[in-house]
Design brief:
The protein has 231 residues and is of the alpha+beta class. The protein is built from 7 helices and 9 strands; from the N terminus they run H-H-H-H-H-E-E-E-E-E-H-E-H-E-E-E. The protein has 2 domains: 77 residues, no CATH class; 121 residues, Chitinase A, domain 3 (Roll), CATH 3.10.50. The strands form 2 sheets. Strands 1, 2, 4, 5, 6, 8 and 9 form a 7-stranded antiparallel beta sheet that branches. Strands 3-7 form a two-stranded antiparallel ribbon. The protein starts with a helix and ends with a strand.
């Protein structure tokens, strides 16, 4: 782990110092700190800052620095259990409430802009491009489906796509996110639906490492239901 971290820090340092400089400038580095250790300390702080922004840009950076200083001084203000409780409260309640408010506003504006989008009681927001054969619709979580689908995040980045891979996916309904399960039930075999999944209907506060989905991320799914196999 230490070796991996060291390599990451060195790579980060090189990227900051080496970008857009001439060979002459690269040979003659500008020393702005009093010692090499000071420079390394600052680079470490930059690295931590970049990662924290990715995790949550709303964090109080002054208290982050205070927490680091207290650990170095062996005088943390919170006991381990208190810290764990504070973390879980923020991630599972406080942060979720903030995320939910943002998602709600986004989906409300989406429905105003495109009246074909409607919302279910769960918060799933969808529009049906093609209804399909409802006599061959999903009836049970034990059913399996064959689908083509595309998954995007709010920024429009592709999270996953069977279209791009040129294949289809055969999967049991109960192995898909809750919002996808609900969306596939709304169309029959041959149907086509576009659905926005609030984070709690997607991968929730856990996220998904396999798809590189961060916690509390709302996702867009375009699903073509090719086949339904009843179980």
């Amino acid at each position: 782990m230490k070796k991996v971290l060291s390599v990451a820090i060195i790579a980060l340092f090189v990227s900051f110092v080496g970008c857009n400089v001439s060979k002459k400038e690269a040979v003659e580095p500008v020393v702005t700190m009093q010692s090499s250790a000071d420079s390394m300390s600052y680079v470490m702080g930059m690295n931590i800052g970049l990662n924290l922004i990715k995790i949550d840009s709303m964090l109080n950076i002054d208290l982050v620095c205070e927490g680091i200083a207290d650990i170095y001084a062996s005088q943390p203000k919170l006991k381990d259990e208190e810290a764990r409780t504070a973390f879980l409260k923020y991630m599972n309640y406080d942060n979720y409430e903030r995320v939910k408010e943002i998602e709600t506003r986004f989906l409300e504006e989406l429905r105003k802009a495109d009246r074909k989008f409607v919302a279910t009681n769960s918060g799933l927001t969808y529009k049906i491009a093609e209804l399909g054969n409802l006599k061959s619709a999903v009836r049970s979580t034990r059913d399996t489906v064959k689908v083509n689908m595309r998954v995007l995040n709010v920024a429009g980045d592709v999270v996953d796509s069977t279209f791009y891979r040129g294949d289809t996916l055969r999967i049991a309904i109960n192995q898909m996110p809750r919002g996808v399960q609900e969306a596939t039930r709304l169309i029959g075999e041959g149907g086509h639906i576009e659905a926005w999944l609030p984070s709690q209907l997607a991968f929730g506060s856990s996220g998904c490492d396999t798809l590189d989905v961060r916690p509390n991320t709302m996702l867009y799914y375009e699903i073509k239901l090719i086949d339904v196999e009843r179980r």
